[in-house]
Structures are given as structure tokens and as C-alpha cells.
Write the C-alpha cells for this entry.
Amino acid sequence: MVTYRPVHVIIYHMVLVTGATGFVGRHLVPRLVEAGWPVRVLVPPRRGGIVRLPWPDLPVEPVAGTLYEPETLAAAMQGVHTVFHLAGAQWWGSARDLERIDVDGTRRIVQSALTARIGRLIVLSHLGAAPASAYALLRAKGQMENVVQKSGLPYTIVRSGVLFGEQDSFVNGIAMLLRTNPLIFLQPGEGESLLHPLYIHDLTAGLVQCMDNLDTVDRVLEIGGPEYISFNEMVRTVMRVTGAHRTIVTAPPYVLRWMTQAIRRILPRWPATPQWFDILASHRTAGLSSMSDAFGITPVRFEDTIMTYMPHRHYLPQLLRFVFRRRRPRGV
């Protein structure tokens, strides 16, 4: 008599990532591939229709297009089970860009996802997001969340603290701003607003876990790192790690917001953006055990981690390259 043993086969469904060439997408895609998921990415085409990917050696399927091309979105979602929607204008756009990319772009993703009958939509938001917020960034993120929650699609919304890593915009932006003046650093107010920095690799590890964790379906997860840090403490830490010691001079936030807008009229790519002041307007924190509770992950500490890469960086040349580079992502 022959006894047949049941064979358990794990089927990995196709995953689509929008905003794949952004800060989070660049780190998430390799993790998804490593975990065994087939990955398709929506990326804006370069001149001549050529697509250039940050990971040329990974088995990733590119689809050239934007959020505003229904036919391209339909093709991108063909056979897709899960969509990671990461495209956004948080670190480079104006309030109008936030409305166009984060809110209207999400509506278009939802429409295509409903037509394609995808199984799940995972989006990245920010701590403090609220549709009625007085701050453009948090208002746009809150409106985006509303679109997702009312879509009828199974979803997971991840509200994250400020992300940091070797290519982040916020912490590296502080390091670049320190090079704009050899003597002082202008700080909005007393810098007492609490931030909840989270390392990019900890975030992407959690996002990948969302794929198999059914407890995260139809939930809004608020996550951050293992510590709260005021903006003043963050600036002093970056000064200490990079050796760029400056005298911190406090200034009214509205004055610095006005100065930033004036500078960006001349230099559209400036490390500080109006969204900075939206984030710093009040405390942006989650529970200290949020990553452990949601994903069983013990996140790394801020200073210990930036010590591994920031002391070796040359931020003045990086500032110059940043300022004179193209203003916005191509095709957005």
C-alpha cells in the first residue's frame, strides 16, 4: 500500500511597487525579492523610453509609466495580488504636488486596483496624518488614507516616524544645511518637537512581514524607532557625528518657512522644504514598542546607526550636487 504525504506548496503572488525608485522603494524591492516574491515595479521612463533600475541584477519586471496613464496602470496590475503604493511628493513637492501625487494619484491607483481585483493595497503614510490638518503634508496624507479606507479594498496603512538611512532626505538634509553656514544653524523655535526616527531597513522588514501577517489587514499601524528625539537633539547629534559644529540660533518657525520658500524660488532643490516645518510643528511619535508589537522587530537606535556611515560622508560636495540636480523625479 502506497502512502501519499501531503505536499505543502507556498505560492508567491506577484507584487507591484509604485515609487520604486524612491528612498523606501529602493530598499523594499530587494527585500521582497530576497523573500521570494515576484516583483513588478512602476517606474517613469527616461528619454527614448528606456527604463533604468537601481537594481540591475535583480529579477524585477519593470513597467514604464506614471500614475496618470490608465492603460499603463492596467497593464502593471495584471496578475498582481498586492500593491505597495509608495509614490509621493513628500520631500520634493509643493502643496499642489502633494494634492496631485499623494491624493489624486492614490485615487487612480485605487480605481485601477478595483478593476484588476487585486488582493491588497499597502500604503505608507506619516505619523500625525489627518485629513483636516492645518499642515499641507499631513492633510494630504490624511486624505490619501481616507481614499484607501473607503475604497473597499483590503488595505494596510503604515504611519511611520521620520525615516533615516544613507540616502534619506531629512537627516542627510540637516547635514547638508550645516554646510551652508560655517558659524550658525537656524533652528525653528526651541526645537522641542519630538520625532520618532525609524531606520529604513527596520521599516522595510516590517513592510515585507505585512505580506504574510493577516493581523495587519484593514489596519492603520503607527510605528517608530526605539527612542524619541527632539529636533534640537537630532541636530546636535548630526553635528557631533559629522564634526560640523555650529552655534544653534533659534528663529520663529514662520520666518524660517518664509525664508525657505524664498530660497526655493531661486534654488528649487534646497535641502529644507515646507514639509519640514509641517513635521516639526508638533510631536510626531508612536509607542516605543510599536515595531515589536506589530512585527516582532527590535529597531536600531538613531545615533548608533548613523555613526556607521555619516562620519565618512562629504556633505559640502553632496550639497552642491543636490542643489543643482534636476528638481523633481522625471515623469511625475
The mean pLDDT is 91. The first strand starts at residue 14 and ends at 18. The first helix runs from residue 23 to 34. Residues 179 and 316 are 6 Å apart (CA to CA).
